[in-house]
Amino acid sequence: MYNLNGKVAFVTGAGGKHGIGRGIALRLAQEGADVVVTDLSTKPYPDAEWDGLPAVQAEIEALGCRSLALTCDVSDAHSVQSAIQQAVETVGRVDILLNNAGARAAKDRTPVVDLLEADWDRVLAVNLKGTFLCSQAAARHMLARGGGGRIINIASTAGKQGVARFAAYCSSKFGVIGFTQSLAQELAGHGITVNAICPSLTATERVGHMASVLAPPGTPLDEATENLLAASRARTPIGRLAQPQDIAGAVAFLASDEADFLTGLSIPVAGGAMMI
Fold first, then answer.
1. Per-residue pLDDT tens digits for 141-156
2. Would you state the pLDDT for residue 221?
3. Which of 2, 7, 160, 169 is catalytic?
4. Annotation says 129 is catalytic
5. Dihedral sign, CA of 84, 90, 95, 101?
6. Is residue 1 part of a domain?
7. How many angstroms from the chain centroid is the CA of residue 29?
8. Active site residue 169
């Protein structure tokens, strides 16, 4: 276990019950951090029997840590700046930024010749511009209070190797890795490390969205989802899908003092499916 007592984390995209964001938020709280959780809406999956951000906030507080739940559109500079300001005013500071918010799979998962400009823009706005805006706002705060901190970006194995029909997504995640390396060099002298984690397909609510747009027309959603999961398991030497806690474990390490000398990395959390 790592000691994050006295630290404050700001986690985007944290409202899903089975999501990476919630898994990370809870792990950081278990390590002692107070955690600000954000998402585009209070309940990002309105059809689910899950209360979204208020439920995550309650779980964090039940672990004995302070928490704050905020709505935030990471693609909008004013929304991001407002959320960071609210976090600082309410909880006192931000020591750890976790850029997890991502665009849901939709019509962008299509061949480039059929890809609409609006779908390209939506994915890049959330995945890449959102990472930039949140990092910029958090870094300004960290520098203003004298430096020191952690910025951790969720990229993807698809940010290291292109995938057919994923051009917008891959481009956004390749961009996150490049952005991570540039920002790491800019902030290293101020005691702020910047790293990226590259998960393989992870068992979250988003899998169903992806399966529905990738499957042949007429394929039942359950069948399409299982086919997608089975294909991912078959590509993974460890023989199972990534779980949110796998990503959360890597985040907890990078957020801790044990990772003081690590910056600019893009680490696959992929069960051996990617080793670069």
1. 999 999 999 999 999 9
2. 86
3. 169
4. no
5. negative
6. no
7. 16
8. yes
